[in-house]
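Q: My labmate handed me this sequence with no annotations at all. I'd like to see what the chain might look like in three dimensions before we decide whether it's worth expressing. Could you predict it?
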Amino acid sequence: MAGWDLKSGSITEYSLSEDRIWLLFNFVFSDSSRKRNTYKFGLIKSLLDSIFNGQKNEQGVYFSYEQLFARFAENYWNLIVKYDLRQMRRDGKSELSKVEIILKTVISKNKTLSLLGFEAIDDDTKKEVIKNVTAECRKCVVGALYDDFNGAIYAFNLKESGLMLNYCIYDFILKYKSELEKLNYYAWARFLEQVNDDNALVRVIDKLELATPRREDLSIYREILRREFEEDTCFYCGKKLHNKMHVDHFIPWSFVKDDKIWNFVLSCPTCNVKKNNRVPARDYLLKIEDRNRKIQLIDNIVIHKDFKSYSDDLLQRMWQYAKMSGIKEYSKCNGNL
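A: Here is what I predict for the chain of 337 residues:
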């Protein structure tokens, strides 16, 4: 049975060396892995983007199909609707993949939607898109990627609500997240070069990186930290915050690719600009971990939702792996810790 047609699969290897895992990923990125479309790259990107939101248990790390393919739908909306990038090889039968058809059908009914990013479309349309994309990808890509990894990446059953990522794959992704993102972008771009004309391919790597946009409105987090947790000083320098305050990603967004309150601190504009795309010194890591232990006690729906997948060692590991990926440390804050 072809991988894409699989309905379920168990994890075949629970303990893999890093060399073995690299071989599996490199196979998927290579031309040796058969690809009619870009779905495998899309699912890998969704896993990378969602990696800090998995639910750990004794069997592995759980991700719901809806969670993964909501990311998938957003990525493809921006690539297909915003940038008009084809995602499938022409085979004489169809020029478009099913996901492309789903998205293009939506905008054919409402031309205005073609001018909007995924985050800006109305909730009903967004839910319908995610529902249809999830149904298509559960059927065609979950088993295909499982098969390419020889059953080592995750366990799945399409009758259930999600997949269970192998713990050793989870740890590997955390450790090499930045490297895997770059390799996935490169392999995806090479495929896109084969199926698109030159005009569509301008700055194609940038388009892939921007397919998952940063959430623009972080005001809800600023208000939670300021009002409910009574943070009124800069996390880094300790100066009193007045009207001008920034919501800063403690671990840079370039590494996390997600917005969660456990990774946010309030900063004065000066410290935020100076820190830029760097990780703070270890003393600040201890400070935010202490803050997070306290903030979890607050009765707030946003806090409870964002902390659902948080663990006490998560920021420690993210901090370490971000530095290993080449992100520099910022230690020139003058605040009192």
